[in-house]
């Protein structure tokens, strides 16, 4: 699906079945999985230290909001996609422009959102 080096995707999801579905989709696209992280502390460690191209972040992870992880990724210039069963309008103002997948999402919707987020990141980081 993507050209060049295999993209590394951080998955932050505390529901095992959903995490496995996302992992399968990520692998189908030829990407590598970072994590998955089912707890905020693990997600923060990965966000701070791992080689990541994009993050897929469940908003509520084991009772904690994932926004500190999103802040770290944004600081590092790494794009991310929120995955949530909540209304996207519940996002803090600073994240309202972030790509969001509403659960349940289809394979095609996931693929399109991932492709757009990675393309946008490549466009903004390439030097002409």
Name the features.
128 residues, five-stranded parallel β-sheet, alpha/beta, 4 helices, 7 strands
Mean pLDDT: 89
Silhouette? globular
In N-to-C order, the SSE pattern is EHEHEEEHEEH
Helix amount: 40-55%
State the separation between the terminal residues, measured CA to CA: 24 Å
Output the strand order for the largest sheet. Answer: 2-1-3-6-7
In terms of per-residue confidence, which ranges show pLDDT below 50 for 5 or more consecutive residues?
none
Strands, total number: 7
How many helical elements? 4
Taken as a percent bin, the fraction of beta residues is 15-25%
- Which structural class do you get from the secondary structure elements? alpha/beta
Short description:
With 128 residues, the chain is of the alpha/beta class.
Please characterize this protein's 3D structure.
- There is one protein chain.
- The chain has four helices and seven strands, in the order βαβαβββαββα.
- The mean pLDDT is 89.
- It has helices spanning 16-28, 40-49, 67-76, 107-125, and strands at 8-12, 32-37, 54-58, 60-61, 64-65, 80-84, 100-102.
- The protein starts with 7 loop residues before the first strand and ends with a helix.
- The protein is globular.
- α2 packs parallel to α3 (67-76).
- The chain has 128 residues and is of the alpha/beta class.
- The chain has a five-stranded parallel sheet with strand order 2-1-3-6-7, with helices on both faces. A two-stranded antiparallel ribbon has the order 4-5.
